[in-house]
Amino acid sequence: MDLLTRLTTVFAENGYLAVFLALLICGMGVPIPEDVTLVAGGVIAGLGYANVHVMFAVTMLGVLVGDAGMFLAGHHYGVRLLHKRPLKWVLTPKRYAAVQKQFERYGNRMLFTARFLPGMRTAVFVSAGLTHRVTFLRFLLLDGLAALISVPVWVYLGYLGANNHEWLLTWMHRGQAGLWIALGILAAGLGIYLWRRHRLAAAERETDTRH
Questions:
Q1: Cis omega before residue 86 (within 30°)?
Q2: Percent helix / strand / coil, the chain, rounded to 5
Q3: Among 10, 69, 133, 156, which has the minimal tally of Cβ within 10 Å of its Cβ?
Q4: Residue 115 DSSP class
Q5: Per-residue CA distances from 110 to 73, 99, 100, 128, 166 (Å)
Q6: Domain ranges in the chain?
Q7: Which of 75, 73, 63 is nearest to 33 (CA)?
Q8: pLDDT tens digit at each of 211 positions of the chain
């Protein structure tokens, strides 16, 4: 029995609370794939054990609370947290140093893209709290925007493929690539928007100078 099937069975028997708690555990760095957990939540909705829209709300809440917990833990407990299990298994000194380097270089962009990096989420969120350079509100906003892209993809994919396991597994394997494509399109759109704003502002300054 694969992990998706096991999670689907547990969630079908225990409902929304089980999905929420599983996502909290994922947020703490326990090696349960978050994407599989989200898909399993969608599957039980597709099988009639839950409402898919309520499931989406529950999974969003579970993801954000789990992520926020890691950020706040890093913020309040600092480097002491790095020596406590299970975090010290996930955030090794080498990984922590690498994340710090990337975080210093990319800042907000690193926080946003961390949601699409399964092996790095916990490390990035704890590091963001440790730095004390990111407010909780900014963290929640960036993480929430990223979650609005990734969470519905996995939940509704599970819902649509609930009765076709083979199709579902195929699209799960393609899903991460699809998220990166969507992220790329979003980044390109944002870049074009900012470029146009810059050009417009430059043109207005030039007009003011002439007058």
A1: yes
A2: 85, 0, 15
A3: 133
A4: T
A5: 19, 9, 10, 10, 34
A6: 3-168
A7: 63
A8: 478 888 899 999 999 999 999 999 887 777 788 888 999 999 999 999 999 999 999 999 999 999 998 888 877 776 666 666 655 555 666 666 666 676 666 667 777 887 877 667 777 888 788 777 788 898 899 999 989 988 998 999 899 888 887 767 675 665 555 555 555 555 566 567 557 776 776 666 666 666 5
24, 69 Cβ separation under 8 angstroms: yes
Distance between CA atoms of residues 121 and 103, nearest Å: 12
Any idea of the CA torsion for 6, 143, 70, 106, to the nearest 10 degrees?
A: 120
For residue 121, the one-letter residue type is R
Residues 78 and 99 sit within 8 Å (Cβ to Cβ): no
